[in-house]
Amino acid sequence: MAINNNIIVGLDIGTTKVCAIVGQMAENGKINVLGMGKAPSQGGVSRGMVANVAKAVTAIQTAVEEAIKQSQVNIKTVFVGIAGHHIKSLQHRGTLSRKQWDVEITEDELNKLEAEMENLALSPGLEILHVLPQEYRIDGEEGIKDPVGRVGVRVECNYHIITGETSAAKTIFMAVRRAGLEIADLIVEPVASAAAVLSEPEMEAGVALVDIGGGTTDICIFDDGAIRHTAIIPIGGDRITKDLQEAFGILKDQAEFVKVNYGSCYPTEAMKNEVVVVPGLPGRTPKEISLYAISQVIRARLEDIIQKVDFEIVVSGIRNKLAGGIVLTGGGSSMKDITQLFNYFIGLEVHIGSPGQRLGKGMIDEVRNPMYATSIGLVLKGFELAQKHQHLEFNNEIINKEELLDARVSDPFLDEVDAEVPLSSTQMDISDTPEGKKGGFGIFTGSWLGGKNGLLKGINDWMKEGEDFHE
Predict the structure, then answer these.
(1) 252 pLDDT above the threshold of 50
(2) Global pTM value
(3) Region of residue 268 (left: phi > 0; alpha: psi -120 to 50; beta: else)
(4) Rg of the chain over CA atoms, in angstroms?
(5) What is the predicted pLDDT for the residue at 362?
(6) Model confidence band, residue 5 (pLDDT cutoffs 50, 70, 90)
(7) Partners of 156 in the beta sheet?
(8) Are 179 and 61 in contact (CB under 8 A)?
(9) Which of 66, 128, 173, 243 could pair covalently with 37 via S-S, beta carbons 3.0-4.6 A apart?
(10) Is 325 left (phi over 0), alpha (psi -120 to 50) or beta?
(11) Interatomic CA distance for residues 192 and 81, integer angstroms
């Protein structure tokens, strides 16, 4: 496959942020991140789905512009994630009858069998996004993972098939095209996150990946090295922020700051004497909010998410086979004590997974954070698909620093707040922080308290026909 400079770009169009990562494959099989760009979605994406094309286009352009400047790579083609509650999965068995039993089974035959799955009859408005082989069966012999080179007459394969709404895919395609880019492929986000976070031993032993993003919680369950179940829950970290906003009558930015810096999943008696002071609206007095009350709100919403995750694990039918337990990733996994809460309600071993193990050394350290699991996974899956479909061409290439970048519309990027403010027995003045400039926070102790080919071909045909999409 002709990939200039062996470079692939992953584009994660998330509910809270759009992130573009430029990755180059190293000789050791790890990804060297050449550049990264991100921009707030600003209402362009809701629950993992593009809700406002114009706003999404602006966010995409801003993120890609930053990635171009940082990596000096002229980005034209991207692998894009797709999510949303419309993503479903099903199991199907395909059969290949061979005339000569003594002729070795070839890769072409398996590809032909997989291609036949693209022709499954689905409900109107649905398309196949992924056809993933689980295990093969040859003349009654079960549990074969790689039949190439074997002999036999009847070859069967169990497939995990992931579907999505055609309209959702078209909207993503439109937004990316309007941003001046081409889509190499659409990749379901939990599949991408799994590629970035999970190890081969974990997938063999059986593990449930839970990616808590801004607008959705994505689930991908593995056993014996193969995907067994995929689901997307339309609730994520943004819902927790909104709960805090509504419960205490504060601004969204304030609720997000409180959640990130003082939020916990476990209310404790000690929290009843700790209070965070949040600036009031203009002309109104500041609000004192108990850390105990904040924790209660967060826990209530997380319990809701955990119950839905547990339901999907039960639906998978392999709850008792998950020796690898649950791996949490995504921005929501950074919540204090979240692993203990999942373990308490589901009863499986839980730990946090980050994409750092798949990255080369000396790269951009920020992308090692679990919140970039999907973005890194899109790059990894891009290389995997590029190797499989070697006829594809990509035009991402390193440019000279002297070359001018293509003119793109962009919005100023709003930096995320990372620094934690320590507790103190007296009210603190943090007017030098970004939040302080908007009114400031204080805290003191007080007296109380988230078919590929057929689909893309159809979308390309649709775009060429000039069909109008009503935003």
Answers:
(1) yes
(2) 0.82
(3) beta
(4) 24
(5) 56
(6) low
(7) 95, 137
(8) yes
(9) 66
(10) left
(11) 8
Per-chain mean pLDDT for the chain: 83
Distance between CA 8 and CA 382 in Å, rounded? 7
Q: Is the pLDDT of residue 467 over 60?
A: no
Q: What domains appear along the chain, each with residue ranges and CATH number?
A: 88-163+453-465 (3.30.1490.110)
Residue whose structure tokens are 């082989």:
133
Structure token digits, residue 339: 């692993």
Pair 20, 61: CB distance under 8 Å: no
Q: What is the torsion angle, in degrees rounded to the nearest 10, for the CA atoms of residue 304, residue 128, residue 119 and residue 121?
A: 40
Instruction: In whole angstroms, give the CA distance from residue 303 to residue 274.
Output: 23
> Rounded to the nearest 5 degrees, what angle is found at the Cα of 261, between the Cα atoms of 18 and 290?
130
Report the alpha-carbon distance of residue 144 to residue 401 in Å, rounded.
51
pLDDT at position 466 over 80: no
Half-sphere exposure of 123 (CA within 13 A, CB side): 6
65 neighbors 405 (Cβ within 8 angstroms)? yes
Alpha carbons 276 and 427: distance in angstroms, whole number:
9
d(CA 347, CA 294): 25
Secondary structure of 95-148 in HEC code, one letter for each residue: EEECCCCCCCCCHHHHHHHHHHHHHCCCCCCEEEEEEEEEEEEECCEEEECCCC
Residue 457 has pLDDT above 70, yes or no: no
Residue 169 structure tokens = 């895919």
Q: How far apart are the first and last CA of the chain?
A: 36
Query: Which has the closest alpha carbon to 218: 307, 330, 57, 112?
Result: 330
Across-strand partners of 18? 13, 39
Contact between 182 and 468 under an 8 Å Cβ cutoff? The reply is: no
Place of tokens 């707030």: 40
Per-residue pLDDT tens over the stretch 382-403: 999 888 766 555 666 776 544 4
Residue 363 and residue 245 in contact, taking contact as beta carbons nearer than 8 Å: no
pLDDT of residue 394: 63
pLDDT at 392: 59
Confidence of residue 309 (pLDDT cuts 50, 70, 90): very high
CA dist., res. 316 & res. 231, Å (int): 10
